[in-house]
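New to this. Explain these tokens.
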Amino acid sequence: MPKPCIATLDLEGVLSPEIWISVAERTQINELRLTTRDISNYDELMQHRLKILNERNIKLSDIQSVIKKMPLLDGAKEFLDELRSIYQVIILSDTFAEFANPIMKKLGYPTLFCHNLKTNDNRIIGYKLRQKNQKQRAVKALKLLGYRVFATGDSYNDIEMLKAADKACLFCAPDSVKKEFPQFKAVETYGELMSEILEFT
């Protein structure tokens, strides 16, 4: 009997817009536009963000207000609904539980593995990783449980997840990531992504 299949997807850039870019646009703070597409070292990126939030007195509730108004990427909910009718799906994200709930509600509450923020009186003072390299480790654990894993992401922080999967592709990734990791097929639409997944089934 063939092994069951499971899909692991990044969240931001695959199903939803980038949270920090949306916050940057709302606050007009261009320094917050940097994401894991730009800086591969996650701690360096987060320390940069926390410094700006502190300097500009931006609170957790300010960011949550932006997230509540963010739309999903066009077609994301329909794609995810179709995918969940075929596979078990886990969202593996480097976002934070304190940010993600409005997005999860719009997506129909799929399973999400992510991190947590450290807060004090509505101020973001730090963050706690659920596990270092959690995307890669989650995929490896799923394979140990007897699953074949198809993974999709768009940024530098997704690469180890993609490498660990049985099959993987980039989705709407920037040219820098596609050029640096040509071993992964790059697709630009949900239709193309679904075709890759169906070939894996």
Observations:
- The CA atoms of residues 15 and 99 lie 15 Å apart.
- The mean pLDDT is 94.
